Amino acid sequence: MPDTETSAAEMAAHRANNTVPTDAEMAAFNKMIIDDFRANNGKVTVDPFKGAPLVLVHHVGAKSGKERIAPLAYDIDGDNVIIIASKGGTPENPAWFHNLVANPDTKIELGPDVIEVTAEPLTEGEERARLYQQMADKMPNFHEYQKNTDRLIPVVVLHRK
């Protein structure tokens, strides 16, 4: 398992310097978060996500067909789990978003539970705006991410099956 202090420090340095981590740095960081999530029954105990509401979203590569897992912040709306495809406010959507568009039937790990879901991307409209606002009001970094990009950041509704 990667050194949690090093991984967290590397990510903090990227945020402070407004730089993008390498693919290898992101993979190591995500593995650390996923391992911690699973070791602690769905709770994250390491910075910078200590205590944050995180869900593990399984997704299948649109081109590769490989299964991947993304640890993401989430919110609940009724019976649905809501995630935001912010990628920190970069100009492009995250790879997991494209994968869920191509392969919407998947599963998530929410706390200790594995739940089958269908992903519904919302790229415009009142429902997208409402859900984005709801989550950003709880996690203000999402307000900042939208300010940092010209794209309208999509919301993904994960409907339980």
Automatic annotation (TrEMBL):
Pfam families: F420H2_quin_red
Residue ranges of coiled coil: none
InterPro entries tied to this protein: F420H2_quin_Rdtase (IPR004378), Split_barrel_FMN-bd (IPR012349)
Annotated catalysed reactions: oxidized coenzyme F420-(gamma-L-Glu)(n) + a quinol + H(+) = reduced coenzyme F420-(gamma-L-Glu)(n) + a quinone
Similarity-based family: Belongs to the F420H(2)-dependent quinone reductase family.
Name of the protein described by the UniProt record: Nitroreductase family deazaflavin-dependent oxidoreductase
Annotated organism of origin: Fodinicola feengrottensis
Native organism taxonomy: Bacteria, Bacillati, Actinomycetota, Actinomycetes, Mycobacteriales
